[in-house]
Amino acid sequence: MFEDDRSYYQRRAEVELVRAQESTQHSVVRVHYQLAEAYLEKIASTEPIRPDAS
Q1: From 3, 28, 32, 46, which residue has the greatest number of CB atoms within 10 Å?
Q2: Domain ranges in the chain?
Q3: DSSP string of the chain?
Q4: Cα Rg for the chain, rounded, in angstroms?
Q5: Which residues contact 29 (CB under 8 A, 6 or more apart)?
Q6: Is the dihedral of CA 21, 32, 44, 7 positive or negative?
Q7: What is the Cα–Cα distance from 27 to 48, expressed in whole angstroms?
Q8: Which tens digit of pLDDT belongs to each residue from 1-54?
Q9: Are 26 and 49 in contact (CB under 8 A)?
């Protein structure tokens, strides 16, 4: 994944978290958290695994 993609997904996750915190309806809050989680999973699933430094 390119750094620009990673930055994009990170920003989108942050926006969704803010929207979840600003929302008052439980169903809307849940959807925003689900979207944030999806963006973060996208980042995590494509990051290279780094060897253990020990």
Answers
A1: 32
A2: 3-46
A3: --HHHHHHHHHHHHHHHHHHHH--SHHHHHHHHHHHHHHHHHHHHHSPPPPP--
A4: 14
A5: 20, 23
A6: negative
A7: 34
A8: 677 899 999 999 999 999 999 999 999 999 999 999 999 999 998 866 565 655
A9: no
- In the chain, the largest separation of any two C-alpha atoms, in whole Å, equals 47
**pLDDT for 3-17, tens place per residue?**
789 999 999 999 999
Residue type, 34: Q
Query: In 3D, which of 30, 29, 37 has the Cα closest to residue 12?
Result: 37
Q: Which residue has the tokens 């926006």?
A: 15
